[in-house]
Amino acid sequence: MQYAIETIDLVKTYKGKVAVDRLNLRVGEGEVFGFLGPNGAGKTTTILMLLGLTEPTSGSARVCGYDPTREPLRVKRVAGYLPEKVGFYDDMTARQNLEYTAALNGISVEDAEKKIREALELVGLADVAEHKVGTFSHGMKQRLGIADVMIKDPKVAFFDEPTAGIDPEGTDQVLRLIKDMARRNVTVLISSHQLHQVQKVCTRVGIMANGRLVAEGSVDELGRRLIGGGKFRIEAQVSPLSDRVISAVKGVKGVSGVEVSGDRLLISCDEDIRPQVARAIIDSESLLLQMKIEEYSLDDIYLRYFRD
To answer: How far apart are CA 62 and CA 46, in angstroms?
Structure first.
């Protein structure tokens, strides 16, 4: 598999204090990866090393195959970055700010005009393209920041708290834009404290604590590992809930435990075996009213991990 982002034993120390401790991270092409953890966990320091804006103490990193320490200009050509506090010239219009970015990145005037027009339309700012950025709300500036990233046609985009301080409508707009970037096969790494928002858009997440990556995987994988004891949990509402149906479900291959709660069966298993469980219930002459697999909240996972 080709990795858009890869680190091997990456370390960063400041005055003897370890900010990032032997980080091994791999993010595939087109993934949306949530980079989570409390303040001071090492998230922003990692992003800065990946962008070539600070050098690691030891270890190595690759962004689209380039070494940020030795090839920072190559990394800058393929990567876009939206910091938590977006910096634009308030006395310039949205279009002028993007033209300035295009010029800094060596994009021709002709290409820049097309890219800027398309980006402003995509982020919903085409109607205010000639307005000075100083008149923009925080949410509008964040969307302009995404347009600023997009005109470079990046292969990788790094977002640091992209929805911080934005109202719900603006947040939804930003999340839709991030999803759209992923559909264009742009790899996105999001550093955020907004866990429910991360869960909406990310294919996988990693949790940092004290400079270390302490958990990594999809939300379902982490939920089963940290909350479900490594098991899938299936909930089935059955009528009637007889001893016969309970015995039949217990006999399904892969079922490791069955609990009864009212008219529901709570079934623990090593994999998703809903079709087999449904067949056992029906063959026992009971009616299967509802069946679902337990879903995990990223908030619960995060809190459970740091509590434990």
So the answer is: 12
**pTM for the predicted model, two decimal places:** 0.79
pLDDT of 276 over the 90 cut: yes
Domain membership of residue 253 (yes or no) is: yes
Residue 267 has pLDDT above 80, yes or no: yes
- How many CB atoms neighbour CB 256 within 10 A? 12
What is residue 232's three-state secondary structure? strand
Q: What angle do CA 148, 181, 217 make, to 5 degrees?
A: 120
In a domain, residue 101? The reply is yes
**In whole angstroms, what is the distance from residue 251 CA to residue 249 CA?**
5
Average the pLDDT over 107-125 and give the result. Answer: 92
Q: Nearest-CA neighbor of 275 among 241, 236, 239?
A: 236
Between these two residues, 235 and 232, which has the higher pLDDT value?
235
- Integer Cα distance of 28 and 182 in angstroms: 11
Separation between Cα atoms, residue 233 and residue 264, nearest integer Å: 12
Which tokens hold the place of 95?
């279009």
Range of the domain at 239: 231-294
- In this structure, are 103 and 245 located in the same domain? no
Mean pLDDT value across residues 246-253: 96
Length of the chain: 308
Predicted local distance difference test score (pLDDT) of residue 28: 94
Domain end point (choices 171, 191, 217): 217
Return d(Cα 41, Cα 240) in angstroms, integer: 51
Is 80 exceeded by the pLDDT of residue 37?
yes
CB 157 within 8 A of CB 181: yes
